[in-house]
Amino acid sequence: MNKIIEFKDVSFRYSEEEDYVLKNLSLDFYEGQFTCVLGHNGSGKSTMAKLINALLIPNDGKVYTFGYDTADENLEIDIRRKVGMVFQNPDNQIVATIVEDDVAFGPENLGIPREEIRKRVDEALKIVNMYEYRRHEPHRLSGGQKQRIAIAGIIAMQTNCIVLDEPTAMLDPVGRREVMEALHRLKNELGISVILVTHFMDEAVNADRVVVMNEGKVCMDGTPREVFVKAELLKSIGLTVPKPLELAEKLKKAGVEIGGTPLTPTEFAEEFKKITENRG
Asked: Which domain CATH number covers 196?
């Protein structure tokens, strides 16, 4: 698997008066992976995300994005052509009064020919299931729809990787589901690498990889099952586990032995069915 982003002994703080948010962080991300980065507030996960496409520059160490040194100001455009960024508040990302114009904004800034932009915008909106809203006013859309418009704008720029900093934090459950479905479609159908920073454990269960940060460092790194099976360690740093696994743990304490490590409602239902069948 090809390495696309490298953090090499990276330390960062926002001012000389403050403590370091990241401390000698070394971490790699790989092509075609869906990676979830988890951590409580102040763990450094959002700062890490902003370092990827040169929104922030390390105080010490190096970040290489697709081989580009993010500290080189002359490479900012090259870096942002490779990595797109979506933030928490969708309203802060809307720049046009019509949906299709908003999606076209990025490609226009890259100097893409008009006919190519038209093609990219239509394709991007179809991928996130927002094509029928192409002539709508963004401010009339739901939060989840706005985030999908933001994602479409990244797709239209044809970036290789998309980084999302808690994009579902302000959304209702329906909006969260819409955004997550769009992200998995990007990875599975287009092969775009996805790096999702979130505090929702349930959003990480279908990722390829989960990275857990605490106090500016990586404290866990593995598949969702490898990470979430260590429930006590997660709880010790202020995190929880996916709801199906949490329910399974409560049942075990009550004397009902749920097998395996159920991370999804479907997995939990299958394990619970085994118990009822055995008792029958």
From this structure: 3.40.50.300
